[in-house]
Amino acid sequence: MAALEVRNLHKRYGHHVAVDNISFSVEEGEIFGIIGPNGAGKTTTVESIAGLRTPDSGSISVLGLDPVKDRAEVRERLGVQLQESSFPDAIKVAEALELYSSFYRDPADWRELMELLGLAEKHKTRYKALSGGQKQRLSIALALVGNPKVAILDELTTGLDPQARRDTWSLIERVRDTGVTILLVTHFMDEAERLSDRIAVIDGGRVAAVDTPEGLIAQVSPVQQVRFRVSQPLDRRVLTELPDVSNVEITEGRWLVTGRGQLLSSVAGALARAQVVAEDLRVDQRNLDDAFVAFTGRAPESPGPRQEEG
Amino acid sequence: MLTRMNMIKVETKLFLRDSATVIFGVLFPTGLLLGLGAIPALREPSPETGGLRPIDIWAPTALVFGMVMIAVQHVPAVVATYRERGILRRLSTTPADPRKVLLAQMMVAFASVVVSAALMISLAWAVLEIAPPERHLKFVVAFLVGYAALLGLGMISAAVVRTSSAANQTGTVLFVALMFFGGAFLPRVLMPDTLREVGEFIPPGLQALTAAWSAEAGEITGTAGGQPFWLQIAIMTVIAAIASGIAAKLFRWE
């Protein structure tokens, strides 16, 4: 059974269609990323899974339960870290954790969680006095305090500095290693690429693609290029005969090899067999940004001020 | 049960950490009364008021001050903040019911009004020799329905405002209007009859509170055309019921 299954989800607000037929499923123990431009329908999808919105049509299953009909049971088992939600200014870290843990039937040990998230020293600090990273970690801790099987993390690292982002990422990987299935909503491509086992690209309320990060990149730019220089003479047939290679250009000792598949390792292997040393070896690396542009026709948003999202 | 106790515990701590509300909502009414009581002229018995001192007749206004402060300023501001900051939304993703948090918050706020009133009544008695409320049942009933009517108005404001700053502004306007009829700017005894009669319909019902506190003071602040005590109570009950109904109807969780 999939941990999370969304089938033919539709949701409109008045005349605005926020979600127009979204389907995907998340396997147990997976980190599943959702990326897409602002207004693509990410937040509506996530809010529907969390039971905060009732879909117009389609079905959602969280561990086999319906977020609307089995509301109480889903809330016991689903941890949620929401974008644009916070806590009272004057509440202290330990108080928030203790309060939230009392909501659940079988909560995690909140003191342990506080340690794990590096908040133990701040346990008497008021929410208002926490740094952005600490607030975010508290929010993650509160999403996990109910011992959830599935956790939704929406815009996890927005507003964090680079070090705090990397710390948060390794924390999420540790959480996944404890067996929690994670649905990660983000508009940071590096975050999605680093953490996700699979990614759904959502655009205009629809799923544009679902694949592994590498798969998405390969889908949009199957063509790869490797450049290098050689000091010794080399027969171009050494490379043109390789199945992955489609073209070889040589200009003034610079080689440009075009191909697909495992191009780099094929080329490197062939050069090694020919006992030729390549210098200045470079691969034209495509990344998730390129895939995002190809699927949505828009450039991914750079880290900056948060925007309203429907 | 554990959840409820925890919510009340946390809401109590949050209330106590909000020093402006503790000072103005809980301590200020007592301070105000003691401050005015320090003015000799207000402690002079007057034959026109049947030998009562101005401070005896005015004391219920200090009580109303604390009630209004908490019901129309503090509670709506907290509720609006909880909504604006997504605190209610966050809660509704947990097994806890966000309604319970609002209930816990209102219980704590009401407890603070009771503490504020008890403090004021006992210090007024000890320091200014103002006798404590003499008609116990009537006083408790007038206090409860009066507060309920105020809270109903406060919750309408909390239901319709979008932001916590809008809640504060609405709260201030309501506070000034209600405190006018509460006798903070012009003592009720000096108001023209029409205003006094209208005042019987304005929460929390200063006339009912005054009459329940001291029958003599009630006679002086009442008018010939005024409603009898239990009718005033009925009016407040109706206002409380209608206002809470409207607030519940209009309330938005997000």
From TrEMBL, chain A:
Main location: membrane
Span of domain ABC transporter: 4-229
Subcellular location as annotated: Cell membrane
Annotated membrane topology: Peripheral membrane protein
GO BP: response to antibiotic
GO cellular component, one term: plasma membrane
InterPro entries noted in UniProt: AAA+_ATPase, ABC_transporter-like_ATP-bd, ABC_transporter-like_CS, ABC_transporter_ATP-binding, P-loop_NTPase
Entries under Pfam families matching the protein: ABC_tran
Record's keyword annotation contains Nucleotide-binding: yes
GO molecular function: ATP binding; ATP hydrolysis activity
PANTHER family per UniProt: ABC TRANSPORTER ATP-BINDING PROTEIN
Protein name: ABC transporter ATP-binding protein
The organism of origin for this protein: Phytoactinopolyspora alkaliphila
